[in-house]
Specification:
Elements: E1 5-10, H1 17-25, E2 37-41, H2 60-65, E3 68-69, H3 82-98, E4 102-107, H4 110-118, H5 128-141, H6 143-153, H7 155-159, H8 166-179, E5 197-204, H9 207-224, H10 226-235, H11 261-279, E6 290-293, H12 297-307
Parallel strand pairs: 1-4, 1-5, 2-3, 2-4, 5-6
Length: 308
């Protein structure tokens, strides 16, 4: 435990990341790593309080089996960006290592994980005047108008940004107008950070299997009360423009063209499947990353035994 190893597990939604962490590192595990791991969530929506069902947060039993960090961090009306994640994740890993445990950074937000592994690109400092003007425009003109502008002027950045993500749309346009260069031209570093000794693992499943798991998870969310959870969040004053409400599983409840729960459910399934397909794009060419089938627990265990 003196080599500062940090295990990083990336996989799309519903692939089985939490189950893997528990099976290998939980207190109920039968492996040699039993009770020696703590999860640092790399889920951009699990950071939000009150959003439990739609983000598939670990339940009480899972939390007792293996500690989780970076869930329920901020209110859903607060923006939590990749810089916030990187700072807090680094701190969590340091604290876990001090306890002689293994940090397991696990999640499906490829944008978070790639930056955690490689570091942030050096981009121009914020320009408050330009940013405020863009914020005013997005309030008046809406996300679609500014997203179309970004798509025309920086299509590479637009491909990586959800049309509902006002914060990142504004930031990309701010960089463009402040520096004269598109955000996509500011490349991430090409090597892993030296902060920790990273062990990146990418989990995969057959497409049909993954899509079935996604559909089943969405059905289960509605049985657990997703619609009621969203209603409570709306009653608390959250709107479609609140950062937390832009996530898949929540944003669909604000789409006026969806007039029934069944339509909302099917759109969530569709959006989740599409998102799963895109998630892997952020994990291309990660130095040292190894890929395993999500069910290959023995192979992953053997790899970790050799590597940590």
């Amino acid at each position: 435990m003196n080599n500062r190893s940090v295990i990083v597990i990336f996989a799309p939604t519903a692939c089985g990341k939490t189950a893997l962490a528990r099976e290998l590192f939980g207190k109920s595990s039968l492996s040699c790593f039993k009770g020696l791991g703590e999860v640092v969530s790399a889920d951009s929506q699990a950071v939000y309080k009150g959003m439990n069902i739609g983000t598939a947060k670990p339940d009480e039993k899972e939390l007792l089996d293996i500690p989780h960090h970076l869930i329920d961090v901020v209110a859903p009306d607060v923006q939590f960006g990749v810089g916030d994640f990187l700072e807090r994740a680094d701190d969590c890993c340091e604290q876990i290592l001090k306890r002689n445990h293994y940090p397991i950074v696990a999640g499906g937000t490829g944008f978070y994980i790639r930056n955690f592994l490689m570091g942030l690109p050096v981009t121009p400092i914020s320009n408050g005047e330009i940013r405020d003007a863009l914020k005013l425009r997005i309030e008046k003109e809406g996300n679609l108008a500014l997203y179309a502008e970004l798509k025309e002027k920086d299509p590479c950045s637009a491909k990586k940004i959800n049309v509902h993500d006002a914060y990142r749309i504004v930031r990309a346009l701010e960089v463009l107008y402040a520096s004269g260069k598109p955000l996509s031209s500011y490349a991430l570093p090409s090597t892993l950070r030296s902060t920790f000794r990273f062990l990146p693992i990418i989990l995969v499943r057959d497409r049909d299997d993954l899509y079935n798991r996604i559909n089943e998870r969405v059905d289960r969310m509605f049985l657990l009360g997703l619609a009621e959870e969203v209603a409570r969040l709306k009653d608390a004053g959250l709107t479609k423009d609140s950062p937390g409400m832009k996530a898949i599983g929540y944003s669909e409840f604000f789409m006026p063209e969806l007039t029934s729960i069944d339509q909302i459910k099917e759109r969530i399934k569709k959006n989740s499947r599409r998102y799963a397909k895109r998630q892997y794009t952020f994990m291309r060419d990660i130095p040292g990353a190894v890929t395993f089938h999500a069910e290959d627990k023995d192979g992953i265990l053997a790899y970790l035994q050799r590597s940590v």
